[in-house]
Amino acid sequence: MMMNKTVFVFAGFMAFCSTMIAESTRDWVYLSKILPQSGNYTIPLRWDVERGARLIFHRLRHDSVKRDLLLNLDPRRPTLLWVGKEGQEPQHVSPKLTIMAQNFPKKTGLIQFNLIVRPAHWWLYYGEKPLLRIPRLHPLPVALGVSQANVEPNNKLVKFKKIARFTQHSAFMDEALVDKDKDPLEGWKKYGDALWHIHSVRDDAFEQKTSTRLNKMPPDAQHSPNFYTLWGGGKPGVLVTGLPEQNDYEVSASIQTGSAEGGVVALYRPEWGGYVLAVEPIRPNDTTAELHLFRLDPQHRRKLLARAQIPTHFGQWLQLKLRVFGDSLEGLVDHASIFKVRTQLVPGGMYGFFAHDPFAKLQKEKN
To answer: Is there a single domain that holds both residue 103 and residue 175?
Structure first.
């Protein structure tokens, strides 16, 4: 009895696939080309809450292995299939899709999807919510088609925004905003039990009373490359900026070793946390420090991914750099690679800084 049930389900699935293939030769509306460069495609679709939507990636290069990729966004069971000529059986794509079914739209209507094209894989988003990751299996360009049932007659325009293949982020503030009326950290997002503020060389000078002429000739940013320092503390404190869908980038800053733990964070989203490269606190007589790479979850629990001892001393400035690319994380100190970890990364996230009580001191660059 179990065998009959299994055969019935399999036969029903193959019949379903055959129906899709029969329609695929005549019922597609091609909206755009997917070009061989990193970018973000905004795709308007008529979404059906029961059936989802269907997309096809039609291979444009003429060779002996010309096949199309059929993406069936069925909320119950999304599939990615190789399809050939009419009458040929479809084949499942391997490796499997990375699917976030809980993020699929919950109502019927016009939906804007974002297809983020990267060298190694593509991500499909609904707003800021990732839906699935697609391994890049086709040489580009390909033609993007949408099922007739999912075409919005008055909205067929696919918008394209080019994205750099790899980006670098090292500045934590706009110095032009540092005045009495504007907060340079106003556009940043704070998470955790965190306190953050900008500290300057001028602040230090007045606190330490290094000169009797400070009121007449105070230090200024123009003559000090590291005039501003970011102080942060919390249990833990996270300060981030950028877009939730950003990926393939590096974030760097200089941190002063001392009694606080601090570092940089990448691929951060409040609902699942992020990845942190941080230097552990050290004592005045220490000659080494622990460098940790870990996953920080929304409850601030840690999963250690890598650790290493690095030579340093109390009060020294170290440049930390966390590079995220494809499915790898790389931690660097003063431009030297310390470790590289391969793992399936989250689809994207914001970048910024991490600190743990007491205050950690960070600078946007090391000179």
So the answer is: no
Whether residue 345 contacts residue 330, with contact meaning beta carbons closer than 8 Å, is answered with no
Q: DSSP readout, 174-221?
A: -GGG-SSS--TTTT-EEEEEEEEEEEEHHHHHHHHT--TTTTTS---G
Q: Does 128 share its domain with 183? A: no
Q: How far is CA 225 from the centre of its chain?
A: 30
- Please tell me whether residues 63 and 7 are part of one structural domain: yes
CA-to-CA distance for 41 and 47, rounded, in angstroms? 17
Q: Count how many domains the chain has.
A: 2
Last residue of a domain, one of 127, 162, 197: 162
Which residues of the chain, if any, have pLDDT below 70? 1-26, 61-66, 85-88, 94-96, 170-182, 201-227, 364-367
Domain that holds residue 12: 2-162
Residue-wise DSSP of 297-310: -TT--EEEEEEEEE
3-class state of residue 82 by DSSP: strand
Of 72, 86, 96, 100, the C-alpha closest to 13 is 72
